[in-house]
Amino acid sequence: MGKKEKAKERREKRRQEISLLRTIPYSDHQRWWTSDTVAVVTGANRGIGFEIARQLALHGLTVILTARETSVGEEAVKVSQERGLTVVFHQLDVVDPSSIEAFAKWTKEIYGGINILVNNAGVNFNFGSDNSVEFAEKVIATNYFGTKNMIKAMIPLMRPSASGARIVNVSSRLGRLNGRRNRIGNIDLRKKLEDDESLSEELIDQTMNTFLEQVKDGSWKDGGWPQVFTDYSLSKLAVNTYTRLIARKFSERPEGQKIYINCCCPGWVKTAMTDWAGHTSPEEGADTAVWLALLPDQLISGRFFGERREINF
Ligand SMILES: NC(=O)c1ccc[n+]([C@@H]2O[C@H](COP(=O)([O-])OP(=O)(O)OC[C@H]3O[C@@H](n4cnc5c(N)ncnc54)[C@H](OP(=O)(O)O)[C@@H]3O)[C@@H](O)[C@H]2O)c1
Questions:
Q1: Which of 93, 148, 195, 238 maximizes the CB count within 10 A of its CB?
Q2: Is the Cβ atom of 146 under 6 angstroms away from ligand 1?
Q3: pTM for the full model?
């Protein structure tokens, strides 16, 4: 059997294991949440985000489904509400600071705070073997800076709780720092991003800005950046490294005010982002994010997961 077939077989086996795991209900002891537990999902009008919102609501949480377009967000909410789920809509564009501010203000007024934030909103403009950086600025602004700005805006709203508040960043294996085939060529930079001592928010931002400057002056092809979906891969690399960084900061918070943050790859999913190519359905793609958001006895933070298993950054 060739490598591809073996990988396909492993994937299929894991899919079957997960679909079995999903049929096992959480026990009363494991359920740390109630119907008053509030989860926010970004970019939830379609695709994986819509499914994450739906599955969290099926588990009995109150879900705030957000979308940048009010009309499509309201339509998406109706689908879940008609099935009796507690899903409400609020507009949120993660690249618009005034939208984030209005969302935070509304959430505080209506709910007082939130328990879970799922940063799912994302964009990609490459398909198949394309590797255009025409929209690099938008990709980095949405996928990395949008995620970071949402985390910063939501920290003060995270409800203190013995189970901890949770943040899940929907990322991608394409953003792996040490991926064998798609990594930053500059070993020194890779080491700095990998090492907890040298990793900083400034370093991540600076890495993104250096890439964007090279896109502007046309020199990015010689910059040693990831070779596949370069802008998208870098944006997710930034999400992953920021997850590791902020998890360390969160670990200093006192008991009762902990925030656990992890990131995950949904796999290659049939959504608009992949032009409906991919191995798995949005329902399956949503699974690891939902599982991470609801982990009983959550003590895991600053890690990266795929198909409910830890993977290397
Ligand atoms: N599909 C895959 O194979 C795959 C693989 C790895 C990772 N992911 C990640 O999974 C997440 C969901 O992707 P998907 O496959 O479900 O893609 P999708 O169907 O294209 O959905 C992306 C969602 O993000 C929203 N969005 C984009 N820009 C936004 C902004 N500025 N503010 C708020 N929302 C915004 C979109 O809203 P509009 O409808 O308004 O555009 C849409 O709701 C993304 O972070 C993606 O990078 C996907």
A1: 238
A2: yes
A3: 0.97
